[in-house]
Amino acid sequence: MRLVVHVIEARNLPAAEAQGLGDPYAKLQLGRQRAKTKVIRKSANPVWDEEFAFRVGDLKEELLIRITDEDKYFSDDFLGQVKVPLSAVLDADNRSLGTRWYPLQPKSKKSKIRDCGEIHLTISLSQSYPEETATLAHWASDDFASSSDKSSELRKGSSLPNIPIELSTSPPVTDEAEITKQDKSNAGPSFVNRLNQFFSVKPKDTEASVPPVFKHDRGLDTLEEMPLTSSQLSDEQDFETSANMSFDELLKAFASKHEGNDMPGNLSGGILIDQVYAVAPNDLNTLLFSPSSDFLQSLAKMQGTTGLDIQQWRLENDGEILKRVITYTKAATKLVKAVKATEDVTYLKADGDMYAVLADVSTPEVPFGNNFRVEILTCIMPGPELRDDERSSRLVISWRLNFMQSTMMKGMIENGAKQGLKDNFSQFSELLAQNVRPVDAKDTTTNNESLSSVQPETESDWKLAFRIFGNFTVVSSVVAFIYVFAHIILASPSIIQGLEFPGLDLPDSVGEVVVCGVLVLQGQRVLNMIARFVQARRQRGGDHGVKAKGDGWLLTVALIDGTNLSATKSSGYSDPYVVFTCNGQTKTSSIKFHTLEPQWNGNF
């Protein structure tokens, strides 16, 4: 007997972050069995569409589903929960509650947030094992679920088929005779006895339709291989098809299924490599990932890696997925012994000019290795044009840690992984530089284009005059002089008195002195503007339109890049930007995130 739970979606989840969008995932628990969905990045209405199966053992148990927001630095935030008792499922028609929305409840009645949103579920009890459900459902374990935790932007809606595997912690399958015998020996009505009242005896042909993958015999402690399921047959057909295709044909077949997909963004852990190389993007992709290339073998020899096993590329899921598996043993270090590692390498984009490859690295033998996986995203894009019209490629490699379950050693794991990746990709860069030439910023035509893009502007005399004289000072001065001139015409000649004499008319009050001073200052400013206009008109041929103050010369600064900047954050990276100040004017460049070698290629 098992409980099948289909987690479809959730809506109107409360905001756990300032921007209102979190990284929610669902945790399911039935007794000691636990499972977990994938994490949906930046969404308040996540869609999971995942199915889980739990083995049923006690009628008093209840299914607990909690929605949690993933936090990279602290403990995950609780968003809401729902509890469904097994007795409610058992008493429902056809032992199924159907597909419905369940309101999420807060953790306690004292919680300030009362509206926690809703979750869309399908819950049912089943005793048979139809092939479709057995192939697609995740089996919950006593320790942790085996579901993936990748961002939706990297998955692009595709997922691998999850084949159920009988865990050694689960009880062995017993027939109905053994169940009946055990029920008789137990006092009181058991849950299995209650269930047998609802389900009739299965015919033998129904039992034969169950698609078991392995049967575990505790007495012999061996695994007996069973017939292949339809999904396994499909995988073997994909393997045979991929084996007959070249690497270029595999890329073309994959690209035809993913036309129009955007390049994924850099991963949150930081950038390991951001370099331009003098090689075409498709040639760089061939060097790094083609089966005919010996780059990985040379890198393994440089790093002391042994037991390198590179499987061939294969198309899966009707061409939707292009992947391969690489296994090797990392050389021992001062702190960690030699450990085995497995890389699941998957193409996310391949259109001839732009490539994105995601590597999911598992190292279970390192300390706390079962708690996390390392994701490395390699992006290849067209680079800037070189001076000799040679093509170039920009290689960007970023990383992040994907924690499969919470651990108190999260900070220590992140620091250790960061240092290890930094050392490994330093050797990676050295080896790659021996095969293709790195490009410096001075070798590109971008610098010359930035300076040559500043062309002299043509401006008429009327526009120049309006820009210089079109202000409040000139307008107020003109109005004041007209007003004074009109007063002189209308007023009668004043009587000579005091120290005045013919030809000298002095102010007769303090107010007249103030008015005279204001008129003199205004006149001086207007005369300076007239002189500036005349000078600007004479020098207009070489000052790009007289945009600046003073003599009217325009200063152009081309901001290209920065190198070897100091890190100001604990992550080892900075978010640099440049501020220019000239003659009281300020210009600010764009911000480059998570890098110590920013590239701007802009002019100010």
Automatic annotation (TrEMBL):
Residues of the C2 domain: 1-102, 540-604
Transmembrane segments annotated in the record for this chain: none
UniProt cross-references to Gene3D superfamilies, sorted A to Z: C2 domain (2.60.40.150)
Annotated compartments: Membrane
Chief location: membrane
Keyword Metal-binding on entry: no
UniProt keyword annotations, A-Z: Membrane
Pfam families in UniProt: C2 (PF00168), VASt (PF16016)
Domain VASt: 268-440
SMART domains recorded: C2
Cellular component GO terms, alphabetical: membrane
Region (Disordered): 146-174
Keyword Mitochondrion among UniProt keywords: no
Full protein name: C2 and GRAM domain-containing protein
Source organism (scientific name): Triticum turgidum subsp. durum
